[in-house]
Input
Amino acid sequence: ETGYLQFFCGYKEYDDSNPPFDASTMVYFRKRLTPEILGEINELIIQKASEPEKKSEAETIPEEKKDTDEANDSDDDHHQPKPPANNGTLIVDATCAPSNIAYPQDLSLLNEGREKLEQIIDELYDPQDGVKPRTYRKQAHRDYLKTARKRRKIAKEIWKAVGKQLRYMKRDFTHIEEMVRHGKTLTLKQEKLLEILKTLYEQQEAMYQNKIHKIANRIVSISQPWVRPIVRGKIKAPVEFGVKLDISISNGFVRLEKQSFDAYNESENLSEIIERYKIRIGSYPECVLADKIYRNRKNLNYCKERGIRLSGPALGRPSKDAVVNKKQAYKDNCDRVEVERAFSLAKGKYGLGLIRARLKETTQSAIALSILALNLGRIWCAFLQFIFESLFDDTILARFENMAFIQ
Output
């Protein structure tokens, strides 16, 4: 409806009768940008940005060393080729990208589910069918507000209020089944919603009967039933509700290694991340900087067999004769902070702190876009720094043609 946007889209004159875009056009466009496609684009950007660095490193190798290496290669042709030496540093860590949902409470979820069941009954009801099924919606709403409006709620009161909402929902399920039995047809959207509400009811009923607060695959949002609680153990937010993801950093560039709505142990993915690093670089990393959770026996043995140094203290109680390289530990800790800076920048500036997408596919695409924007931001900052330095040193302009990633 805006004139300059229509001019940007190529309209020859202003038209207020036919809008150029539908309300859901960008949603369908975002669905085409899958995490796999965005990962390939991110890898192309990193490769293009790394070309000047590789070219400059090749130019700095002395000619004598090149001749020596060629001679050694010719002498060793009849021998079995040696594996390449480990090179580079790999930083790995995991975090959670919270989704934009209300904090889940059992009473609020049941009240929302009951209202949606009543809406389905209203859509299925036809005045020609006779008397409308009684749902007691007004009384159910008053029972909910009676407890929800209290500033201080006793556990026994919440338990009783949850029981009432469960009984109201059970009555609504019975009415819907009766209406379907008499010839009413549910739409595809109603069938999906009804399946989610049945799962929610079964989970809440099991927790209510057993007086527990944990259950497998717990639904915390009716609009986004795939979101799961992710226990992070942070002081500010011990539990977050969203997507758990792993990232890796090498040479300053960030890659999205894994993302999942279900909670998982990030230490199980370390070997896969290292193997992908070898496929890209051609050799294993010299050092892997990670949290203590990655230092289990499986990962330690895996890194030891490949000559990789995994940062962190040794397992078990330290012996009396143990010698700790405090300087190396301090340096590793300082270098590992880079991944925390990446998380802070992605959550504060590139939308990873609160995912506002409503669909499962678009949520994963939004996370991949945030990681891609991190690398683009780094390249842009490097370009601005180059321009600033070139204002004071004319010799730097000669290196401009080597910066192919700017093109």
Q: What stands out?
A: The first helix runs from residue 3 to 8. The radius of gyration is 29 Å. The mean pLDDT is 86. The first strand starts at residue 89 and ends at 98.
